[in-house]
Every structure is written in structure tokens, then in C-alpha cells.
Automatic annotation (TrEMBL):
<dbReference type="Pfam" id="PF04140">
    <property type="entry name" value="ICMT"/>
</dbReference>
<keyword id="KW-0472">Membrane</keyword>
<dbReference type="InterPro" id="IPR052527">
    <property type="entry name" value="Metal_cation-efflux_comp"/>
</dbReference>
<feature type="transmembrane region" description="Helical">
    <location>
        <begin position="162"/>
        <end position="187"/>
    </location>
</feature>
<feature type="transmembrane region" description="Helical">
    <location>
        <begin position="71"/>
        <end position="90"/>
    </location>
</feature>
<keyword id="KW-0489">Methyltransferase</keyword>
<dbReference type="InterPro" id="IPR007269">
    <property type="entry name" value="ICMT_MeTrfase"/>
</dbReference>
<dbReference type="GO" id="GO:0032259">
    <property type="term" value="P:methylation"/>
</dbReference>
<protein>
    <submittedName>
        <fullName>Isoprenylcysteine carboxylmethyltransferase family protein</fullName>
    </submittedName>
</protein>
<keyword id="KW-0808">Transferase</keyword>
<feature type="transmembrane region" description="Helical">
    <location>
        <begin position="102"/>
        <end position="120"/>
    </location>
</feature>
<keyword id="KW-0812">Transmembrane</keyword>
<feature type="transmembrane region" description="Helical">
    <location>
        <begin position="39"/>
        <end position="59"/>
    </location>
</feature>
<keyword id="KW-1133">Transmembrane helix</keyword>
<dbReference type="GO" id="GO:0004671">
    <property type="term" value="F:protein C-terminal S-isoprenylcysteine carboxyl O-methyltransferase activity"/>
</dbReference>
<dbReference type="GO" id="GO:0016020">
    <property type="term" value="C:membrane"/>
</dbReference>
<feature type="transmembrane region" description="Helical">
    <location>
        <begin position="7"/>
        <end position="33"/>
    </location>
</feature>
């Protein structure tokens, strides 16, 4: 798929702003790139952003949208800005740091794995994947692949990705910020599931009975 110009610009600007805040928090380019884990983190960030450009996702309200849920996007944005800056800043200042280089590399691995899980469902759904809680034209229920196990793999990827970013800076505050993503995420999940129940009726109910929302065996 080819990216739309608006979404492509948003992705590029968002990625550069996110990295820029981290560099600022770390105390500059030299300080940020002084550790190989942060270099690897940057490479993964650009690779994921590049892949996202061709995923086919959009921000369309589609045929029907739950507009009351849009506040969640603002919450994600605020937490995201804090998560971009504070982990690098607190590492530089030595505030609530998790010790050891192994934590950094674990973070890089989780950031990559979570990012891949975040983007993969967007490729699967294509134009039916919207950043808004909405029913798209030609919307159909996908129940195969990763969706045969969990109903919201992209959101699980978001949490793993955010946790990986925090750990790459060994930041306890970053881990806390990841936890703060959970309440608005659950609100969004419930809003999406209500919309899908209204759209697909008993088919979605049957699908819910045989799958998990986020974590198999737990939730």
C-alpha cells in the first residue's frame, strides 16, 4: 500500500518529535547516542515508522464513529509526550533508575517486538484500521491469525512497545507512564467492542467467547 500524504507527514513529524524529545531529555545528541542500546533503539524506531507508512491505516471516521471516545487520543498524546522525554531525562539525572545494561537491551527487544505487534494488525486490516473508534466502509470481522487468539493485538503491542522504550532508558518513571496508558486503553477497548457488537451482533458475541481481549489466559 502507498501512504497518504497527510498520514505520512504525521508519521514522519511524530517520529522526529518523539526522538527529539528523548535527545533533549538525554542532554543532547552526543549524550543520547553515547550508548549502543540507544543507537539500536533509534534504528528500530525508524524501521517501525517506515513500515507504518505502508500499513494502510488511517484516521477516517468511516460510516459510524464513537466520537465520545476521542478524548482517549488526547490522553495517549499527553502520556506519549511525557514518555518521550522523561525516561531519557530521569536516566540522565539518576532518578528512579533500574540498574544494569541488560535492562537496556531487554527494553530494545521489547520495543521492537511490541512495535511489530502494534503494526502487524494494521497491515492485516488495511483501510479498515482507523485511529478512531469507527466502522469503516466494507468493514468485516477478522477472526484468523493473531485475531483468533486475542481481539486487540495492536493495543497489546502498544503497551509492550511503550514498556520497551521505558526500559531502554532504565526508567522506573517510564514504566509508571506505561501503566498510565492502561485505563484510557481499556476505555477505548470497551468502546470498540460495543461498536462491533452493534455492527456484527451475535457473530461478534460468539467471537468474544472464544478469544481474549489482550493477554491469553488473563484478560
Amino acid at each position: 500500500m502507498t501512504p497518504t500524504s497527510g498520514l505520512a507527514a504525521l508519521t514522519v513529524v511524530g517520529t522526529l518529535a518523539y526522538l527529539g524529545l528523548a535527545v533533549l531529555g538525554a542532554g543532547g545528541l552526543a549524550a543520547f547516542f553515547s550508548h549502543p542500546a540507544r543507537i539500536a533503539l533509534t534504528i528500530v524506531l525508524f524501521a517501525l515508522s517506515g513500515a507504518a507508512l505502508f500499513s494502510g491505516g488511517n484516521l477516517s471516521p468511516g460510516e459510524r464513529e464513537d466520537r465520545a471516545n476521542r478524548w482517549v487520543i488526547t490522553a495517549f498524546g499527553v502520556i506519549g509526550l511525557l514518555a518521550a522525554y522523561l525516561p531519557a531525562y530521569t536516566e540522565r539525572k539518576g532518578v528512579w533508575i533500574l540498574d544494569g545494561d541488560a535492562v537496556r537491551w531487554l527494553g530494545v527487544g521489547l520495543f521492537a517486538a511490541g512495535g511489530a505487534l502494534r503494526i502487524w494488525p494494521v497491515f492485516v486490516l488495511g483501510r479498515r484500521f482507523s485511529g478512531l473508534v469507527a466502522i469503516q466502509p466494507g468493514h468485516r470481522l477478522v477472526t484468523s491469525g493473531v485475531y483468533s487468539v486475542i481481539r486487540h493485538p495492536s493495543y497489546l503491542g502498544l503497551l509492550v512497545n511503550a514498556l520497551g522504550w521505558a526500559l531502554a532508558f532504565r526508567s522506573g518513571i517510564g514504566v509508571l507512564l506505561t501503566a498510565l496508558l492502561v485505563p484510557p486503553l481499556l476505555v477505548r477497548i470497551h468502546a470498540e467492542e460495543k461498536l462491533l457488537r452493534d455492527q456484527f451482533d451475535s457473530g461478534y458475541e460468539a467471537y468474544c467467547r472464544r478469544t481474549w481481549r489482550l493477554i491469553p489466559g488473563l484478560y
